[in-house]
Amino acid sequence: MGAQVSKQIERRTDIKTEKKVLADLKQTCGCDYPGCDYRPSDRKNWMSALNPDKLRINQIVWPGTHDSATNQIGIPFISRPFAQCQTLSIYDQLVAGARVLDVRIQEDRRVCHGILLTYSVDVVIADVKKFLTETQSEIIILEIRTEFGHTDPPDFDQYLKDQLGDYLIHHDDRVFEKTIAEILPRRVICVWKPQKAPAPAAGDPLWSSGYLKDNWTDTDKPSTKFESNMKHLGEQPATVGRKYFYRVENTVTPQADNPILCVKAVTGRIQPYARTFIAECVRRGIADRLQIFSTDFIDDDFVDACVGLTSAKVEGKA
Length: 318
Known about the structure:
It comes from Salvia splendens. By secondary structure, this protein is of the alpha/beta class. It contains 10 helices and 9 strands. It has a single domain, classed as Phosphatidylinositol (PI) phosphodiesterase (TIM Barrel). Helix content is 34%, strand content 14%.
C-alpha cells in the first residue's frame, strides 16, 4: 500500500513538473508565427476564403479531431467521461472548421472507442454529406478504421463507396500537389484502415492506411508528448514532395495506473499549447513538415491557429 501511494505521489509530481515546462515555454517563447494573427471570418468556409485556385493540398495545415465521433459515446456521467474526446457532433465540428475526422468502428458499423459504443457510422456519413451540400470548396479527410481488437464490418469498403459516391477523391499521388480548384467537385479523401480486410488498391476511390501516418505516443505527460511530437515530426520530409499525410495529435491519454481517468481533465494538460507547438515548429525549422494537427475537444482558437499558418503559406510568408 505504501509503495502504491509513493508511486502516485511521484506521478503527480512528474505531471506538475511537465505542465510547468510547457507553461514556461509558452511564457518565454510566446505563440508568434507567420499568420498567427489571422482569424477566418467564416470557419465553415475557411478554405474557400483562402482562394481554391491558389491553395494547394500540400500547403494546408489541416485542423483535425481525435476520436471524432465520441460526442455521445457510453453512458452520460458514468462511462462517457472516460471515452468522450469531442462534445460536438461531426457536422458541428466541420462547421467549426475541422477538416480531418478520425472515426473508429466495429463489426456492426457502430462507432466505438475501445469497448464503449455510440451511434452507427451512418450518423457520421449523414453529417459529412450535410456539410458538403452546404459548402462548395471545403475538402475533408475522413479516416475510418476498425478499432483495435474488433472485427472489420463486412463489405465496408463498398458501403463507403456507395455512400460517398462522387464526393470521393480517388487515390492519386498527384493530388498532393494540386490546388483545391483542380480537385473540385470531388471533396472527400477517405482513408479506410481495416484490421484484416484487403486494403484499398492504387487508384481506388478509397485511400489505404499508408497515406495517413502518425507516431502515437501513449502518455499522460504533456511535455513528454510535446517533445515526442516534435521529434517524430522532425523526422518527416517537407510536405512539398511528400506523398502521404502526416498527423500530429495535440493530446495526452489517461493511463490505467493514474487515478485521473477522465479524458477532458487529462488532455487539458496539453490542449492550451497548440499555438506554442506551431511557434516551436517555426523556431526549430520544421514548420514545413506540419500538416495534420489534431486535438480533443476542438475549439475556435485551435482552428484559427492552423488556418493562420495555412494562410501564411499561401501568401508565401511561411
